[in-house]
Design a protein that fits this description.
The complex is a heterotrimer of chains A (496), B (492) and C (110). With 496 residues, chain A is α/β, with parallel strands linked by helices. Helices cover 39% and strands 12% of the residues of chain A. Chain A has 16 helices and eleven strands. The longest helix of chain A has 24 residues, at 373-396. Chain B folds into three domains: 14-298, no CATH class; 313-426, no CATH class; 434-491, Arc Repressor Mutant, subunit A (Orthogonal Bundle). In chain B, strands 1, 3, 7, 8, 9, 12, 13, 14, 15 and 16 form a ten-stranded mixed β-sheet that branches. In chain B, strands 6-5-17 form a three-stranded antiparallel β-sheet, with no helix packed on it. A two-stranded antiparallel sheet of chain B has the order 4-18. Chain B is α+β, with helices and mostly antiparallel strands and 492 residues long. Helix content of chain B is 40%, strand content 19%. Mean pLDDT of chain B is 92; it is low at 1-10. Chain C is of the alpha+beta class. Chain C has helices spanning 7-16, 23-40, 75-79, and strands at residues 64-65, 85-86, 89-93. A two-stranded antiparallel sheet of chain C has the order 2-3. Residues 98-110 of chain C have low confidence and may be disordered. Classes of the chains: A alpha/beta (496), B alpha+beta (492), C alpha+beta (110). Chains in contact: A-B, A-C, B-C. The interface between A and B is large, with 43 and 29 residues. Strand 2 (68-69) of chain B pairs parallel with strand 1 (64-65) of chain C, so a sheet runs across the interface.
């Protein structure tokens, strides 16, 4: 029997449900794509081939016994390496957790698995989520499947790269300042940062508690909607999830965007945004206008302050969240510690990479006595102003749009000499985390040298369905999200 | 200070001590007796095998998050209501960041600038006087685990069972003036918490811990001077010893022309002294910031009203009533309130009988002994209040003698048989019948003419001898009071 | 606000962070601090006098759970990932200095 031609996760879901394929057939076909593509892009830190097949067999067994199929039965997924799974290790791509086995699964993982989705591997990332290129991983460098000399973006670089190179999967990433959306833009796939509080953070290794969210990265908005529906909703283990009902996101997509008001953010097209990026995004605006959206300009007067605010807030929270990695109860411990303080100081300096140490230092400083008001408290006040910018815009429009990143994917190594050069690519994504609004990045075209460009849409808190509708409407009218990267696992000759 | 000072190098001179006034404040940590820990569902129980009472949350595993135990919040509010504190309408948790092996996250979730309770007072008795100490605040936080310093090994061992247990921190104003007062305040605070059912406050098990802040100043001054903090105080009596030592030390330093250094000192109970904590003393920078993983708490009037309902009277209010309305001495009132069930039982008895002192005597002298012996609470003995009242009334009315009553007591416990029936069966009914008494007294008088002569001459023992003889003849059945009276009548 | 980033400040922050930085790392971070200070200076342009800080991002409050016991991991589960253990305890270098002054850490427990 020929291998199934798989185009999307939804297709696997429907195919398994209709009996067209068994779970084993679907998983085998996807794993074959992974086997061909992953070695060229190094997206995964761990592959669970045997476990995935076992799970697939188990599901097929249940169905043959006449049991009802779970809603996502047979859909393969990966989890970013900062999301706890009972399978394999959960390392956050850090030496300090290099062989850490989680003793419990993240709620998002548990929910996907309960829905019949099958965990296939852990994806590579910037250490603890700190970075925008996946070059800060202590494990490996992931390559962009569109051009393997270039970065896939970060910190969910592995997830985005695999989403581009293999069809039929959904990927769990995490986003604190753009870590789902920016790699999605660089890899030409769709990535959703849900509203803060939409998805449980229980089992997500915390970077910045008031900014982090787990979200889906996949080949289409529809696949993202499929995944979001399975993972969203309150969790008694996470006090920061909100008691807001979860709609049927797949069904919501059919509503389209006709009549919705779309605001183009004036401040999101400044000098630093490359010309071709601007052009692709403005073309997308025209596409939306053609689809019936009412387009107007909106202003975010405090847009320029988002990145400095983000650096202070995320650094402060991270410095506290990462204090637990100390070599005492789990994780890496330095050899032959001479004393307790030596144990702490050397385990942490040896276990953490340079960017993590920088951020912990900045964060500690920002919270320290004498500086708290001037930095942390001040940043929280500016955060209030940034939130107000969004609230005011949403009094007039239902969604706002801009580019995801000022530049497309850049060459590996290009921005590693100066951390602030890397921070600069976050400038358009961090505001959504500060304002706790949902944000989606979807491919809206390519540069002349064939690098993907991403557009970003935000909506009101808990209007995740609205941003999905915009991305989906775009994808029904265009084909950028179906383009083939240089490395793609579904081609016979496995170009790359 | 008494004899204890005699063996100490730092015993202050009597006149030196009089020059100074001590200023003491206590910071008390009370472990709540909720079923589960503060932020996770691990059982909150003392004495479990090491690290058996832990979960990913209280172990601080990567990716875990705290969730607030409602019962702990309610305990905190009730404690505040009992002390007349202002309950915050809006309160939140904060992170207190520092590194220690018994603190798995290397931060403690506590409360910084918006504690759940502010202000309040605790009234108590000390040295026969009524005293009032102000409270600064009461707040909620999670406990740390335990570090055990392995003897002879260059290691320390960490048990995280206690990590995450809910704590109330009660901070008093520096209103205490003597070590005795500090001990009395601590005992009353403990009693309040026990009566509320908020904690079992067992210092041996660590569910009540106390640090002290001490300074001295010239008597008559109202300035607050440099204070030291004393930690590692593990029992009520050690509170007083530690304070006595430290006050004596500070007086000696001042008298010697020195200055008190602001520092933290540990109390060493074996040597009965305080010592500065080892190692470079460095002011902690806890980098407090609001806990982002927890939603704030809003306490409305409705919730407060529900919590106020069913709050018991304060122990001191009970004591006031026992002393002022019932005429009991301080000692009795104090003993009776130590156990809330006993106090309530006693009050039920009072509804049936006004004989407070008699009831108190019976409780203290007989009932408590039985409770200890059988290891039962007062409600489990099988001695309903009405029954004890009946017993008291039997003695009061002369139906049985006091001695007879004590013999009767164990027989009425756990039995519903009428007391009269048991008295009859035991044959201890006391006889007060006039003619019977007269006959017996006349017989004894006739047999002891010389004693009667002594009695008429005013010899005290004569009366007792004659009463004794009657009691012997009647095998204890005669009512001694009636016998005495009759002897007086017959002998003139 | 003019803050001078000195070696002492960097060393102090490193100690608070329990990071035993090498001198090269400390020097690099000193430069990084200066860049970050420069980067966030723009926030001083804003008039924040009447602005409330944004603390908790959601409108929820009173998120509680019931006081009901759930099973614990057990000592083996708790210690499974421990870098060093002694029986059922986590093991660390001795905390409190003994008579000879060996070991020791100036922190106090809670």
């Amino acid at each position: 029997m020929g291998a199934p031609t798989i185009r999307s996760a939804l297709e696997i879901r429907d195919g398994v449900r209709s009996g067209k394929w068994t779970c084993v057939e679907a998983i085998t076909a996807v794993m074959e794509q992974v086997r061909k593509a992953n070695p060229k892009i190094d997206a995964l830190n761990q592959v669970f081939a045997d476990e995935a097949l076992s799970a697939a067999r188990e599901l097929d067994g249940r169905r043959s016994r006449g049991e009802d199929l779970a809603p996502l039965a047979g859909v393969p997924f990966t989890a970013k390496d900062n999301i706890c799974t009972l399978e394999g290790n959960t390392t956050a791509a850090s030496k300090i957790l290099h062989n850490h086995r989680a003793v419990y699964p993240a709620t998002a993982v548990r929910r996907l698995q309960a829905a019949g989705a099958i965990l296939v591997g852990k994806s590579n990332m910037d250490e603890f989520g700190m970075g925008s290129s996946t070059e800060n991983s202590s494990v490996r460098v992931t390559k962009n499947p569109w051009r393997t000399t270039h970065v896939p973006g970060g910190s969910s670089g592995g997830a985005a790269a695999l989403a581009a190179a293999v069809r039929g999967m959904v990927h769990l990433g995490s986003d604190t300042g753009g870590s789902i959306r920016q790699p999605a833009a660089y890899c030409g796939v769709t990535g959703l940062k849900p509203t803060y509080g939409r998805v449980s953070r229980y089992g997500l290794l915390a970077f910045a508690s008031s900014l982090d969210q787990i979200g889906p990265i996949a080949g289409s908005a529809r696949d993202c909607a499929l995944a979001l529906g399975a993972i969203a909703g309150t969790d008694p283990m996470d006090s920061t999830t909100a008691p807001v009902p979860v709609p049927d996101y797949l069904a919501e997509l059919a509503k389209g965007i006709k009549g919705l008001r779309l605001g183009v953010v004036r401040e999101y097209f400044p000098e630093g945004v490359e010309a071709e990026v601007k052009e692709r995004v403005l073309e997308a605006v025209e596409t939306f206008r053609g689809l019936g959206a009412r387009v107007e300009e909106v202003s975010f007067p405090h847009a320029a302050y988002a990145n400095p605010t983000y650096v202070l807030v995320s650094g402060a929270e991270a410095s506290s969240n990462l204090a637990r990695y100390d070599g005492v109860h789990y994780g890496y411990r330095t050899a032959n510690p001479r004393s307790l303080i030596d144990l702490y100081a050397r385990s942490r300096v040896e276990g953490f990479g340079p960017e993590v140490k920088r951020r912990i230092m900045v964060g500690t400083f920002v919270l320290s006595s004498g500086y708290y008001d001037a930095f942390y408290l001040k940043a929280l006040k500016v955060r209030r102003l940034i939130r107000r910018d969004f609230e005011r815009a949403f009094e007039r429009v239902d969604a706002v749009i801009g580019p995801t990143s000022p530049v497309p994917a850049f060459p590996i190594g290009d921005r590693m000499d100066d951390p602030l050069k890397l921070y600069a690519v976050d400038v358009l994504t961090v505001a959504a985390n500060l304002a706790s609004v949902p944000g989606i990045s979807f491919p809206c075209g390519f540069t002349r040298d064939n690098l993907p460009v991403g557009a970003q849409v935000f909506a009101r808190p808990f209007d995740d369905a609205v941003v999905l509708r915009f991305a989906h409407a775009f994808q029904e009218a265009t084909a950028h999200h179906r383009a083939e990267p240089a490395v793609c696992g579904w081609k016979e000759d496995g170009r790359g | 200070m008494g004899d204890r000072a005699a063996g100490r190098a730092s015993a202050p001179h009597g006149s030196d001590a009089a020059k100074y006034e001590s200023v003491i404040g206590l910071e008390v940590h009370v472990q709540l007796s909720t079923r589960t820990k503060m932020f996770c569902r691990c059982q909150n129980r003392f004495g479990a095998p090491p690290n058996s009472q832990t979960c990913p949350v209280c172990l601080g595993h990567p990716g875990t998050l705290p969730v607030i135990n409602r019962a702990a919040v309610e305990s905190a509010v009730r404690a505040g209501l009992a002390c007349g504190s202002e309950i915050a309408r809006y309160t939140k948790f904060d992170r207190k960041n520092y590194y220690y092996p018994d603190l798995p996250k290397n931060y403690q979730i506590s409360q910084y600038d918006l504690p759940i309770c502010a202000g309040g007072v605790v009234d108590f008795f000390s040295g026969g006087r009524r005293r009032r100490v102000g409270l600064v605040r009461i707040h909620l936080e999670e406990d740390a685990g335990k570090n055990i310093h392995a003897a002879g090994l260059p290691e320390s061992h960490v048990d995280l069972n206690r990590a995450g247990v809910p704590l109330l921190e009660v901070v008093s104003a520096p209103d205490l003036r003597t070590p005795e007062e500090a001990g009395a305040y601590l005992k009353m605070l403990r009693l309040i918490m026990v009566h509320l059912g908020v904690s079992d406050c067992n210092m041996e098990e660590g569910s009540l811990r106390c640090d002290a802040n001490v300074s001295i100043r010239p008597r008559g001054s109202d300035q607050l001077e440099t204070r030291t903090e004393i930690k590692n105080i593990n029992s009520f009596s050690f509170v007083m010893s530690a304070l006595e030592y430290e006050i004596g030390r500070q007086i000696e330093v001042r008298e010697g022309g020195g200055k008190i250094v602001q520092e933290t000192r540990l109390y060493d109970s074996a040597r009965d002294e305080t010592r500065p904590m080892r190692g470079k003393e460095e002011a902690h920078d806890y980098r407090y910031f609001p806990e982002p993983d927890l939603a704030p708490i809003e306490i409305d009037e409705g919730w407060l009203a529900r919590l106020r309902e069913g709050m018991p009277p304060l122990p001191i209010a009970r004591m006031d009533r026992y002393m002022n309305e019932c005429g009991l001495p301080y000692y009795d009132a104090d003993v009776l309130v130590q156990d809330r069930q006993v106090a309530e039982y006693f009050e039920e008895c009072l509804k049936l009988s006004p004989s407070a002192k008699a009831l108190s005597n019976w409780l203290i002298n007989e009932v408590f002994g039985l409770m200890n012996q059988q290891k039962l609470g007062i409600r489990e003995l099988g001695l309903p209040p009405g029954r004890l009242v009946e017993l008291v009334q039997s003695v009061e009315s002369g139906t049985v003698s006091k001695a007879g009553g004590r013999d009767l007591f164990p027989r009425i416990v756990g039995s519903t048989r009428p007391i009269a029936e048991i008295v009859a069966e035991m044959g201890i009914a006391q006889v007060s019948d006039d003619s019977f008494i007269r006959r017996e007294v006349e017989a004894v008088v006739a047999e002891n003419p010389s004693v009667v002569e002594d009695l008429r001459k005013g010899k005290k023992n004569a009366q007792n001898f004659l009463v004794g003889q009657v009691m012997r003849r009647t095998k204890g059945k005669a009512n001694p009071a009636a016998v005495s009276e009759m002897i007086g009548k017959i002998t003139g | 606000m003019a803050i001078e980033i000195t070696d002492e400040l960097v060393a102090h922050v490193a100690r608070l962070s329990r990071l035993g930085l090498s001198s090269a790392e400390a020097a690099e971070i000193k430069g990084h601090f200066r860049k970050i200070l420069e980067f966030v200076k723009t926030l001083d342009q804003l008039d924040l006098k009447d602005v409330d800080p944004s603390f908790f991002p959601l409108a929820t409050h009173n998120v509680f759970r019931d006081d009901e016991v759930a099973p614990s991991l057990g000592a083996d589960g708790a210690l499974r990932n421990a870098p060093a253990r002694r029986g059922d305890h986590f093991m660390v270098p001795r905390i409190v200095a003994d008579a000879s002054g060996v070991g020791g850490e100036p922190e106090e427990s809670a």
